[in-house]
Amino acid sequence: MITLYNELAQRIRDEVQDIERVIHRALRAWSHAHKLPEEQDVYLDSVALNLHGFYSGIEHLFELIARHIDHTLPEGETWHRALLHQMAHDLTGIRPAVIGQDSALPLDELRRFRHLVRNVYTMNLSPDKMTGLMSTLPGLWEVLRAEMLAFADFVEVLAETSEDK
Description:
- The chain has 165 residues and is mostly helical.
- The chain has one domain.
- It is 79% helix and 0% strand.
- The protein has helices at residues 2-35, 40-70, 79-87, 101-119, 127-164.
- α1 packs antiparallel against α2, α2 (40-70) crosses α4 and α4 (101-119) crosses α5.
- It is elongated and about 60 Å long.
- The termini are close together.
């Protein structure tokens, strides 16, 4: 169990770095979309793909936490939403909330956007919707990054306390 906790903490830290690269790609593409209006559609496709990747990376970490710390992963048609909800709540005697309620709402918007990216042609995606997501992304990431790294610290403490027993 100790090794599992240490591996999970390191996985969170590694994934945070990967997600940060995805965010920088989305921001760079967003900037180019405004500088080169004649090529905007290509850059907006990149933004959409990177926003998809951002949420998918976060959700993958949530799945690992649910599986290895909570020992319960939501099921059913709405499992993606339920997993996000699960991460925003304390599990008494198991773990604190992974993310705060202030992070959960914008993450839910990104979850819904990812669903759109998966299920519609990119030419049908609204640049206006992307404007809202991109404007919240840097601030959301600042908070979310701190929350994820704090949770990695918590998991390391779990490993240490498990070791003492």
